[in-house]
């Protein structure tokens, strides 16, 4: 796991080492163990390394034997052992212990077809001096991030937006449609980011950049190719068992110890069961809850799972000031605005685990792959009504996060002018789906290409890497995702309960009665914190914030605060404005400023 950055320049120009170093400095948190730089012709590459596999020999950039290929990579190629055996038989044995070298050797042997052979989570940049092109590649599900920007004399890329801000020739500008999508959807999905001109490399895609700086997208994987299957329970259970065995065995490949985030829910409990079953031993596990709040937590359930499998468990019971003191640092870590309250406790978990480990397992992806969310199984009447009122997505993802009243009262002219942007990524994804897919499969796919990479996995990557910690997500092995998406609906949902197949398969493996507990999710008691005098103080500071004054109607903020104080809504809107105000300071007004993990949030508005 690492940070990567670099650029390819217009012909006749040569890379500036000082700019590469500046980008690397912004990615130091992703790779505290090592740093390397490569300059050849018009291409410059840099990497900051978190050493996990091939500890002594995995320095990057990696070069081919003839020096014509150079690679910087972030992530893990889990099937590198099998691929190395295959490549050795072709006369391309590995020269290091790094799994990333497999990308280099596979490309040398197979060209772009190598992408189909890689199993893992990765983002990489590969300079092919033979062809004069730079290849930017990203894993199938978008587990690892990769951004790029076209500048007057180059195309630059980086693992995080903050590294690109370090070399922009002018002050960054906000992209209005992306900002509006954050406010309404809680994340800014699609290829656009909040910074005008900075874009995401799409998941399952490689961008081929030639010597003239033309970009040629190459999409090597898509869940759209999954075909629905008729399969009975016994066969599906056997196939799931085999897939999880393979995925978990590969995901445990590491030259450093690993641990587990335990939420108390099904997915992390399944990972615990498989780790124990495959002999992971007395590993460390972590869970989180809150003091002084009415909100239920899952500390007891997580402790029960950990005890059942003999883990070295560490429950964290937090005070609300500690949780919300994380707000500035989480905004800095994420780069991209997300109103996912779970970022706050995730940051504390990451810091705690990162002080002891470099790798943790986490259960993201199980709900998307096996239809665990309630939004995948709405009543027919609800689906039809929403589809009638908001056509284009089968009644899915139709309602904005902001109440209509506050959308009209608070958003400034530039945001009101891009109202069509709200659902654009959802509508685009829905239109792509095959006619023979069910409504449930379409909902799963839409989340797999929008909310998963642009929200959930931003949290999993950026919040953990803020503390030099790698998150491994076995449920997002692409073979498991393809399998789950292909299943008939009645193996995913029965009696109004999602993930039916996974539940029945996992039941014998888990502590007795664990599946009978209600799902609570990873909640954060925002309502117990953002109220009363604190809400009033937040409102006053927001009204003075430069970014808020530029993009919102500050005259409506006192009304919003009053609604929040009297329990008439406004919590999401007020919290979203807080995040934007902090983000604006860190990424627009003062790029390069870095909060500490524990701050007074009001000081950063």
From TrEMBL:
Keywords from UniProt, A to Z, are: ATP-binding, Glutamine amidotransferase, Nucleotide-binding
Q: Which pathway does the record list?
A: Amino-acid biosynthesis; L-asparagine biosynthesis; L-asparagine from L-aspartate (L-Gln route): step 1/1
Q: Which Pfam families match?
A: Asn_synthase, GATase_7
Q: Which SUPFAM superfamilies match?
A: Adenine nucleotide alpha hydrolases-like, N-terminal nucleophile aminohydrolases (Ntn hydrolases)
Q: Does the keyword Nucleotide-binding apply?
A: yes
Q: Which parts of the sequence belong to the Glutamine amidotransferase type-2 domain?
A: 2-212
The chemistry this enzyme catalyses reads: L-aspartate + L-glutamine + ATP + H2O = L-asparagine + L-glutamate + AMP + diphosphate + H(+)
Task: Please name the InterPro entries in this protein's record.
Answer: Asn_synth_AEB, Asn_synthase, ASN_synthetase/amidase, AsnB_N, GATase_2_dom, Ntn_hydrolases_N, Rossmann-like_a/b/a_fold
Q: Which CDD domains match?
A: Asn_synthase_B_C (cd01991), AsnB (cd00712)
- EC number(s) stated in the UniProt entry for this protein: 6.3.5.4
Q: Which family does it belong to?
A: Belongs to the asparagine synthetase family.
- Please report the name of this protein according to its UniProt entry: asparagine synthase (glutamine-hydrolyzing)
Q: Which organism is it from?
A: Allochromatium tepidum
């Amino acid at each position: 796991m690492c940070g990567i950055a670099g650029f390819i320049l217009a012909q006749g120009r040569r890379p500036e080492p000082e700019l590469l170093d500046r980008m690397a400095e912004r990615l130091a948190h992703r790779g505290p163990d090592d740093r390397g730089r490569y300059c050849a012709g018009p291409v410059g590459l840099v990497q900051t390394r978190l050493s996990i596999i091939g500890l002594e020999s995995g320095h990057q950039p990696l070069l081919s034997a003839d020096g014509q290929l150079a690679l910087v990579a972030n992530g893990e190629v889990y099937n590198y052992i099998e691929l190395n055996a295959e490549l050795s038989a072709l006369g391309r044995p590995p020269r290091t212990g790094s799994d990333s070298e497999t990308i280099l050797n596979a490309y040398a042997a197979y060209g772009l077809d190598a992408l189909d052979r890689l199993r893992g989570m990765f983002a990489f940049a590969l300079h092919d001096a033979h062809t004069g092109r730079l290849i930017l590649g990203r894993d199938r599900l978008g587990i690892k991030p990769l951004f790029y920007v076209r500048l007057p004399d180059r195309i630059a890329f980086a693992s995080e937006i903050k590294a690109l801000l370090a070399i922009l020739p002018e002050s960054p500008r906000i992209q209005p449609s992306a900002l509006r999508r954050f406010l309404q959807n809680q994340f800014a999905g699609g290829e656009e980011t909040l910074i005008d001109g900075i874009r995401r490399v799409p998941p399952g895609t490689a961008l081929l950049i030639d010597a003239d700086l033309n970009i040629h997208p190459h999409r090597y994987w898509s869940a759209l190719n999954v075909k629905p299957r008729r399969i009975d329970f016994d066969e599906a259970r056997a196939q799931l068992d085999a897939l999880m065995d393979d995925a978990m065995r590969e995901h445990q490949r590491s030259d450093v110890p690993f641990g587990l985030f335990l939420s108390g829910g099904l997915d992390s409990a399944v990972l615990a069961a498989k780790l124990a079953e495959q002999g992971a031993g007395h590993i460390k596990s972590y869970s989180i809850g809150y003091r002084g709040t009415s909100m239920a937590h899952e500390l007891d359930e997580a402790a029960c799972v950990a005890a059942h499998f003999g883990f070295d468990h560490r429950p964290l019971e937090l005070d609300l000031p500690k949780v919300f003191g994380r707000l500035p640092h989480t905004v800095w870590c994420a780069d991209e605005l997300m109103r996912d309250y779970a970022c706050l406790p995730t940051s504390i978990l990451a810091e705690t685990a990162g002080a002891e480990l470099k790798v943790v397992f986490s259960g993201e992806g199980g709900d998307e792959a096996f239809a665990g969310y309630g939004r995948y199984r709405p009543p027919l009447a609800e689906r039809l009504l929403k589809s009638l009122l908001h056509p284009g997505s089968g009644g899915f993802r139709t309602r904005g996060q902001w109440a209509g009243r506050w959308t009209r009262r608070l958003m400034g002219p530039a945001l009101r002018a891009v109202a069509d942007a709200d659902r654009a990524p959802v509508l685009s994804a829905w239109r792509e789906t095959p006619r023979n897919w069910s409504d449930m499969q379409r909902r799963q796919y839409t989340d797999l290409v929008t909310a998963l990479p642009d929200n959930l996995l931003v949290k999993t990557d950026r919040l953990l890497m803020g503390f030099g910690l790698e998150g491994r997500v076995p449920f997002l092995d692409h073979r498991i995702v393809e399998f789950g998406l292909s299943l008939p609906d009645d193996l995913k949902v029965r009696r109004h309960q999602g993930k039916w197949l996974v539940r029945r398969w996992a039941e014998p493996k888990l502590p007795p009665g664990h599946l009978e507990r209600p799902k609570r999710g990873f909640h954060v008691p925002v309502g117990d914190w953002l109220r009363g005098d604190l809400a009033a103080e937040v409102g006053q500071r927001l009204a003075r914030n430069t970014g808020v004054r530029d993009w919102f109607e500050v005259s409506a903020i006192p009304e919003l605060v009053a609604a929040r104080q009297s329990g008439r809504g406004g919590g999401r809107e007020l919290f979203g404005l807080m995040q934007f105000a902090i983000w604006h300071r860190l990424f627009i007004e003062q790029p390069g400023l870095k909060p500490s993990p524990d701050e007074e949030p009001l000081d950063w508005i």
